[in-house]
Specification:
The chain has helices spanning 12-21, 27-37, 46-58, 82-106; strands at 25-26, 62-68, 74-80. It is of the alpha+beta class and 113 residues long.
């Protein structure tokens, strides 16, 4: 099994936006969804998640409403807003550009410098 990777600074918001873009989820469901789509290589701590959810909702990128969880408990469900979809698209493009730059840098050979 792969060792879990440390989450890079500033990527939590993007991961949350991606998770809720796949369908409305309650807080713990977001943790599980990120774990699932990362094939258990990322694990988000609840202490990091809830302040991020508050921040994203305050910025208008996600919206919430109360509902009932699978175990019949009251839970706040989050969904992506139109502004959140735009933000996710922008962040994804920026991330992909940066990943390409980093791959080029890390793949540089002495004869190419």
């Amino acid at each position: 099994m792969d060792k879990q990777l440390d989450l890079l600074q500033g990527t939590l918001d993007m991961l949350i936006l991606k998770a809720v873009s796949l369908g409305p989820l309650h807080g713990y469901g977001i943790l599980l969804r990120i774990q699932q789509i990362s094939k258990d290589r990322l694990e988000i701590q609840q202490g990091s998640l809830y302040p991020a959810l508050y921040r994203l909702e305050h910025q208008g990128w996600i919206a919430s409403e109360w509902g009932e969880s699978e175990n019949k408990r009251k839970a706040k469900y989050y969904r992506l807003t139109a502004a959140g979809k735009r933000k996710l698209q922008t962040e994804t493009e920026n991330w992909n550009r940066m990943a390409n730059v980093m791959a080029g840098i890390l793949g540089a050979k002495p004869e190419e410098v």
